Every structure is written in C-alpha cells, then in structure tokens.
C-alpha cells in the first residue's frame, strides 16, 4: 500500500496547525505510519501461515485462526490511520474553499482592493469550527480503535498458546501463535503512540477553546472601555453645552441696598 498520499496530506495540514498539531503529525508520521510501513507489516506477514495447531483435522486450523484473529492487527491499524488522517483533509478543503472565494472576490474588484479574509489559513469563523471538529473526530477515532483492540485482544496481548474447541476440531486443540512476544511489543508500541496522539488532540482542543475564551473576554473588556469612553465624552459635551448656554445668558447685576449710617 502506498502511504505517500497520507504523508503529503499531513505535510500540507501542518501549515495550518498549532504547535500541538505539529507534534501530533510528527508522532503519527514517525511513530505510527513509518513504523507500520517499515516493521509492522513484516511482523504480521506470516501470522496465518505460521499459526500451527496440533491436529491434522481439515478446517480446524482455519476455524481456530478466524476465532482468535477475527480482524488482523495490520488491517485494523491501516483503517485507523486512514480514518484518523481524513479530518486533516477536511481542514485543507476548507482552506482551499476560502482561497477560491478570495480569488473570485479579487477578480470582481476593479482596482484589486479589499479582501474577504485577512488570512485564508487563519483559524477564525467557520475554519475554527472545522479545525475543532477535526480534532474531536481524530480523538474519537483513536479512542474507538483502542476499545476495539482491547475488546478483540484482551489487554492488547497475544498468548503463545490458545486452546480451541470449535468444530470441526475433534477435541481440545492447542494452537501456537508465531512470535507472540515480538507482536506484543509492537502492539504495545502502537497503543502507546495512539494514547499520546489522543492526549495531544485533547491538549490542542483545550488550547483552542481557552484562547477563544480569552479573546472573547478581551473583546468584552475593550467594548466596556469604549462604552465608558463614549459616555464620558457625552457627559463632557453636555457639560460644555450647559456652560456655553450659561455664558450666553445676560448677566444680572444686583445692587446692594444703601445702608444708613447711624
């Protein structure tokens, strides 16, 4: 499978990500995608061929293998990597939509002045919501797949020997999994990398929300300051007008009554 498309996708999305997002992409590319391509596919390449049962009963080995490996690790990880990188494509599509709108807007301007967006890649308005939703989807996808792995393979581990009693096996059959220790090591590695990605997604969500709340509070304070300034200016103008009216009124001189000397 050619994973170059996903590498290009992650590289393009990194331009519109925060510091947490760039770390997340590095972890996905280096510790998940690269490890999957280089090592994991080779480790599980012989899982069915070397799944050996101590019986010659036709069909017993296939039935036992299907029972203990309903879905292969490598196929689950491939599906997980595809789904977890798709939200980044949604962000790139939104940015491309903004750039297309900006281009059409410039073409309509006679002198080429005026812009719809200060920066088409800046996370404001709808793009902020798109980016936030993409983070939620990424964390949800990884969490769901962690649960699936834990549900299928208890404690994310493979035993060296499994006992199978399914028909057409004649009795209790011992089946041996090829290189269970090596597979458990890579499984634990991928699980830890997934947990790190979930934590980074949650940190980025918290960072975006807290930053937006802080900006909203600052805007409210600025609005209050502007309102207070306008009120002071209005009171100042009223006082000036009253003073001008008082100055324009004719002055009345009051002559004190004459006092008689005794």
Automatic annotation (TrEMBL):
UniProt similarity note: Belongs to the connexin family.
GO terms classed as biological process: cell-cell signaling
Locations listed in the record: Cell junction, Gap junction; Cell membrane
Domain Connexin N-terminal span(s) in chain numbering: 42-75
PANTHER family, A to Z: CONNEXIN, GAP JUNCTION BETA-5 PROTEIN
Keyword match Ribosomal protein: no
Gene3D superfamilies on file: Gap junction channel protein cysteine-rich domain
Molecular-function GO term, any one: gap junction channel activity
Coiled-coil intervals, chain numbering: none
Keyword Coiled coil part of the UniProt annotation: no
Primary role: One gap junction consists of a cluster of closely packed pairs of transmembrane channels, the connexons, through which materials of low MW diffuse from one cell to a neighboring cell.
InterPro entries xref list: Connexin (IPR000500), Connexin_CCC (IPR019570), Connexin_CS (IPR017990), Connexin_N (IPR013092), Connexin_N_sf (IPR038359)
Pfam families to which the protein is assigned, alphabetical: Connexin
Organism for this UniProt entry: Eleutherodactylus coqui (Puerto Rican coqui)
GO CC annotation: connexin complex
Membrane topology term: Multi-pass membrane protein
Record-annotated Connexin cysteine-rich domain positions: 141-208
PROSITE patterns to which the protein is assigned, alphabetical: CONNEXINS_1, CONNEXINS_2
Subunit structure: A connexon is composed of a hexamer of connexins.
Major place of residence: other
Protein's UniProt name: Gap junction protein
Entry's transmembrane regions: 20-39, 77-97, 128-153, 185-209
């Amino acid at each position: 499978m050619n994973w170059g498309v996903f590498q290009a996708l992650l590289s393009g999305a990194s331009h519109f990500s925060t510091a947490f997002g760039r770390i997340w992409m590095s972890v996905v590319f280096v510790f998940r995608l690269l490890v999957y391509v280089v090592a994991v596919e080779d480790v599980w390449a012989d899982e069915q061929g070397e799944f050996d049962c101590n019986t010659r009963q036709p069909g017993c080995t296939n039935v036992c293998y299907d029972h203990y490996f309903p879905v292969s690790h490598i196929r689950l990880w491939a599906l997980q990597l595809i789904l977890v990188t798709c939200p980044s494509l949604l962000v790139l599509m939104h940015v491309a939509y903004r750039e297309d709108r900006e281009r059409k807007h410039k073409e309509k301007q006679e002198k080429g002045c005026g812009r719809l967006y200060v920066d088409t890649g800046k996370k404001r308005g709808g793009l902020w919501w798109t980016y936030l939703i993409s983070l939620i989807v990424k964390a949800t996808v990884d969490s769901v797949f962690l649960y699936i792995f834990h549900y299928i393979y208890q404690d994310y581990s493979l035993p060296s020997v499994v006992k199978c009693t399914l028909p057409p096996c004649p009795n209790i059959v011992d089946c041996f999994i090829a290189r269970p220790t090596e597979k458990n090591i890579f499984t634990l590695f991928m699980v830890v990398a997934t947990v790190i990605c979930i934590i980074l997604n949650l940190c980025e969500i918290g960072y975006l929300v807290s930053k937006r709340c802080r900006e909203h509070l600052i805007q409210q304070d600025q609005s209050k300051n502007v309102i207070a300034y306008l009120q002071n200016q209005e009171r100042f103008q009223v006082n000036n007008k009253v003073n001008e009216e008082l100055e324009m009124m004719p002055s009345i001189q009051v002559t004190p009554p004459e006092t008689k000397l005794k």
